[in-house]
Amino acid sequence: MTYHPKSDFIATMIERGFLADCTDYQGLDDALTSGVQTAYIGYDATAQSLHVGHLMNIMVLRWFQKLGHKPITLMGGGTTKVGDPSFRSDERPLLGPEQIDANIAGMQKVFDKYLSYDDSDTGALMLNNAEWLDDLNYLDFLRDIGRHFSVNRMLSFESVKSRLDREQSLSFLEFNYMILQAYDFLELNRRYSCILQMGGSDQWGNIVNGIDLTRRVLDHEIYGLTTPLLTTSDGRKMGKSQGGAIWLNGDMLSPYEFWQFWRNTTDADVGRFLKIFTELPVDECDRMGALQGSEINEAKIRLANEVTTLLHGAEAAAKAEATAREVFEKGGVGGDLPTLTLTAEDLGDGISVVQLIVKSGLAKSGKEAKRLISENGARLDDAPLTDAGLMIDAAALSSPIKLSAGKKRHALVQLA
């Protein structure tokens, strides 16, 4: 990247590793230095919580606001009814209005932690595209908006082309998604003078469509900026773990488990993740990322504390660190571990340890739990667990027991 920006925002995006591409560096840079500007990122309401895969772009919005501009979080109450086909091999399941509204309410809890929604010049806006999409007249929309789109060009976008090349069905419903997303940008520019759409690099085609449409209809100059699709140093998609998605809502993933995810970062990713997911100075991130041996573990703890503090608060981060030290360094139980509470009815005459491993989230299936035991990866109260047929009864649960999968994943099991 040889461009030398004047605006603090683009400089920060480059310096911290957020920037993949931009439709017009010079034009956007000039706009950002001329006063407060408005930018948005769209989020379809496909789950009740955002996950770690969304966190990079949430941090982009946070920096945008911190550096003197106005962010919009656009909830896809309308577009979720269609489903984004980008780089998917199949159609998304269609959700009803009640589920979409419930998902949006869950996602809003996360945004409130990172952005300030107020009436100031830079106060964030929470909008829902159902506001303008739900009442569209189909014939008017086709005539006024659809005529600006070339099907030939739409078919050339990689997100669509890759699906068709694999001879996987792309419904007409999904094909309309990019037109609706482009229309979002047009409406946000018209209503809120929004000049910038940001998103992951897989959204490039959708963003460019919105820019072209707005130029054609309103003759306004607007911009797009994308972030890289984040993978870990070993090539895995960011945000996936053995236990599934790393959710950002505390009621779907405990602060301790969230903290532990960051503590388990591989050595090669520490410096990069510090720059992206914390607000520590870049020099400090580079210094910690270059540490070796046992010192890099303290950098990982710092990473986990900083990221957890932003989402769940300093108290939750300190509690998670204390629990981790108790569990790992002292071999203790730790009061903040993920906990499975069983009733006497659940327990009956006894429950197999394999079922407990699955129920506590340490394995996805009984087959995986048995393999864990056979490969000496499971422990019960820090002792090797070798008997997959072991039954746990009420007497064994007179006090909580600790189950472990490998060295880093633990859960408590207790009786109600």
From TrEMBL:
<feature type="binding site">
    <location>
        <position position="181"/>
    </location>
    <ligand>
        <name>L-tyrosine</name>
    </ligand>
</feature>
<dbReference type="GO" id="GO:0003723">
    <property type="term" value="F:RNA binding"/>
</dbReference>
<dbReference type="GO" id="GO:0004831">
    <property type="term" value="F:tyrosine-tRNA ligase activity"/>
</dbReference>
<keyword id="KW-0030">Aminoacyl-tRNA synthetase</keyword>
<comment type="subunit">
    <text>Homodimer.</text>
</comment>
<keyword id="KW-0694">RNA-binding</keyword>
<dbReference type="Pfam" id="PF00579">
    <property type="entry name" value="tRNA-synt_1b"/>
</dbReference>
<dbReference type="InterPro" id="IPR024088">
    <property type="entry name" value="Tyr-tRNA-ligase_bac-type"/>
</dbReference>
<dbReference type="InterPro" id="IPR036986">
    <property type="entry name" value="S4_RNA-bd_sf"/>
</dbReference>
<dbReference type="GO" id="GO:0006437">
    <property type="term" value="P:tyrosyl-tRNA aminoacylation"/>
</dbReference>
<protein>
    <recommendedName>
        <fullName>Tyrosine--tRNA ligase</fullName>
        <ecNumber>6.1.1.1</ecNumber>
    </recommendedName>
</protein>
<dbReference type="InterPro" id="IPR002307">
    <property type="entry name" value="Tyr-tRNA-ligase"/>
</dbReference>
<dbReference type="InterPro" id="IPR014729">
    <property type="entry name" value="Rossmann-like_a/b/a_fold"/>
</dbReference>
<dbReference type="GO" id="GO:0005524">
    <property type="term" value="F:ATP binding"/>
</dbReference>
<dbReference type="GO" id="GO:0042803">
    <property type="term" value="F:protein homodimerization activity"/>
</dbReference>
<feature type="binding site">
    <location>
        <position position="240"/>
    </location>
    <ligand>
        <name>ATP</name>
    </ligand>
</feature>
<dbReference type="InterPro" id="IPR024107">
    <property type="entry name" value="Tyr-tRNA-ligase_bac_1"/>
</dbReference>
<dbReference type="GO" id="GO:0005829">
    <property type="term" value="C:cytosol"/>
</dbReference>
<comment type="similarity">
    <text>Belongs to the class-I aminoacyl-tRNA synthetase family. TyrS type 1 subfamily.</text>
</comment>
<keyword id="KW-0648">Protein biosynthesis</keyword>
<dbReference type="InterPro" id="IPR002305">
    <property type="entry name" value="aa-tRNA-synth_Ic"/>
</dbReference>
<keyword id="KW-0547">Nucleotide-binding</keyword>
<keyword id="KW-0067">ATP-binding</keyword>
<feature type="binding site">
    <location>
        <position position="177"/>
    </location>
    <ligand>
        <name>L-tyrosine</name>
    </ligand>
</feature>
<keyword id="KW-0963">Cytoplasm</keyword>
<feature type="short sequence motif" description="'KMSKS' region">
    <location>
        <begin position="237"/>
        <end position="241"/>
    </location>
</feature>
<feature type="short sequence motif" description="'HIGH' region">
    <location>
        <begin position="45"/>
        <end position="54"/>
    </location>
</feature>
<keyword id="KW-0436">Ligase</keyword>
<comment type="function">
    <text>Catalyzes the attachment of tyrosine to tRNA(Tyr) in a two-step reaction: tyrosine is first activated by ATP to form Tyr-AMP and then transferred to the acceptor end of tRNA(Tyr).</text>
</comment>
<feature type="binding site">
    <location>
        <position position="40"/>
    </location>
    <ligand>
        <name>L-tyrosine</name>
    </ligand>
</feature>
